[in-house]
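User: Please predict the structure of the protein below. I'd like the answer in structure-token form so I can feed it into my own downstream comparison script.

Assistant: Understood. Taking the following sequence of 230 residues as input:
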Amino acid sequence: MKKGLIIAIDGPAASGKSTTAQLLAQKLGYVYIDTGAMYRACALKAKKMGIDINDEESIRELLDDIDIRIENHNSKNRIFLDGEDVSEDIRADDISALASAISAIPAVRYKMVELQRKMGEKGGVILDGRDIGTFVFPTAEVKFFLTASPEVRAKRRWLELQQKGINKDFSEVLADLVKRDNNDSQRALAPLKKADDAIEVDTSNMTIEEQTDFLYQIICSRMEEECKCS
């Protein structure tokens, strides 16, 4: 028996997917599945093992015994790779770049999707990523596609880096983001794209609170009898 809806939130980097998904999960009492973190964890393991990202045979072997878990601690997700908390390690810039590349490898994609479907099959979950509504859960009851201009998204990422004490030129951040967009949109398997039945939301001029409330109201109005809305 399903525990609730399956809600898919897709979109490019820095469109506000992850933060919005986390806040919505808290408001709805749902489980948040950070699919991007799973690819980052896979990329981190490849780096730790010294595996070249282009060595697909070694990458496939890596998947045989990989253990990725998502646990909620004090209303925040923690990502565990082979029993080790790597929640901070997977957010490094180099891991972001590796994650984009490794996610294009079919064996990796299928393995992560298999894990994601097992985690979310009973419902009561919110997943964010780039192919949730089109590939992972094409039958999700509610789908969103968040977007914003590259400049706005790059500024968000740049400010995030500044807050972490990482000094990086804005132009470099923008270039990295545009490259990531191209990689995600042009990969052969499950590329970044809006599902036909997804609701597109431009977050360029919205705060996180505004976009969270906007999506929350849509979820409640469309599935009122199944949502924990007051």
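That's the full token string. The first helix runs from residue 17 to 28.
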